[in-house]
Amino acid sequence: KAKKTARKTAKAAKKKTTAMGWPSHEPSTSLGHPTAMVTEAAAIQRIMDAGFTAHDYDRKQEQFIKHQGRVPSPSEVVRGLMTEQKQRGKVKGKGKRRATGKVRVKVKDQRVGKVRWMRVVVVLGAIAGMPFAAWRIPQYKSSPIAIIGEVRYEVLDRPEDIRHQLRTPFEELFGNRPVTLVDGRRIYVTESDYKLCWPESWDAIYEKNYSMRISAKARPLYFNDYSVAEVKTVERIDNPMARAR
User: Which of 56, 97, 138, 157 could pair with 52 as two cysteines, CB 3.0-4.6 Å apart?
Assistant: First the structure.
């Protein structure tokens, strides 16, 4: 009875596979289970589950006959199709990895470019901040000192020191003006205080023969200079030329 049942099952499987357009073969070893004997129907079912068609089966079978010189079993065809599918998957995976690698390289290049620009900005900011730190930050725990002196009036009030040659344009950007004293000191005051020190033009002051004596306060800086001074008092001195004689 068991033999008759097995024969009937094999005949039914052959009829089913023939009706589906698949060639019939004897049972062979299954792919992935080399010690298990499976029927042709099981091998074909596995091919269908893997997403292959009858055209794929015929193509692989023709390749096998061409290279091996014999008709392959269904398990051999399944093995060949599965191997081909794995190889295609590896190639696709490599392509994806390569594409991902290119994207990573692009992202890395963009990050490197941003870091370089940030470094340039930091360096430029440091260079631009050096004058501000040198001419605006007073000495630690320093108190304002009194600056008393007579203003020196010249047609062209040009500084002789390189420090003041650089600082004068910087202070003019903030609306401050330089004032030179007779003893050679140079201070910087606001526009309103500058008008107190220079009430008229140089020609008018020279013709009227007078000068201004000022008293101001400023804090010492780290580079042997003074901060922007605040004029406290202004005193007019008449006939300073006669007094100088």
Answer: 56
160: phi then psi, degrees, rounded to nearest 5: -95, -25
Task: Tell me the three state secondary structure of residue 198.
Answer: coil
Q: How far apart are CA 102 and CA 224, in angstroms?
A: 57
The per-residue DSSP string of 46-92 comes to HHHHTT--HHHHHHHHHHHHHHHSSPPPHHHHHHHHHHHHHHHHHHH
- Most confident listed range (46-55, 105-114, 166-175, 225-234): 225-234
Distance CA 134, CA 123 (A): 17
- The CA-atom distances, in angstroms, between 7 and each of 10, 13, 26, 43 are 5, 10, 13, 18
Burial 48-76 (b: 16+ CB within 10 A, else e): eeeebeeebbebbbeebeeeeeeebbbbb
Show the tokens assigned to 206.
């020279």
| Dihedral over Cα of 209, 159, 193, 181: its sign | negative
Q: Cα separation of 199 and 180, whole Å?
A: 15
Instruction: Name the helix (H) or strand (E) containing 163.
Output: helix 162-173
pLDDT band at 30 (very low <50, low <70, confident <90, very high): very low
